[in-house]
Amino acid sequence: MNNEIESDDLTISARRTESLDAPDITSLVNNETSKIFGRVNVARIIEKSNLAVTVVDEQNVVVGHAAFYDYPNCNLSNHWMEWIKRNYQQTKSDPINT
Prior knowledge:
Layout: E1 3-6, E2 11-16, H1 22-26, H2 31-37, H3 42-48, E3 51-57, E4 62-68, H4 80-88
Antiparallel strand pairs: 1-2, 2-3, 3-4
């Protein structure tokens, strides 16, 4: 499924990421993104994420990427329930319903 957005300057489409996109996504990494996200393994992100979306322009050149997981991006180890309750004020959450 492609969702296209057009403007006077640029047409972009968003689609589910494929493993073949990894080299193009890696080419988007620069000093600024490394400062924010650190060193990343793009192939692993694509493989392990629940949803990975690639944004391409009208020539099918990768211009953006986002990957989504089903857990927060922080080191919680065995304290994830406390983290959820503290950050989301969820008093009815437990390991079974989250």
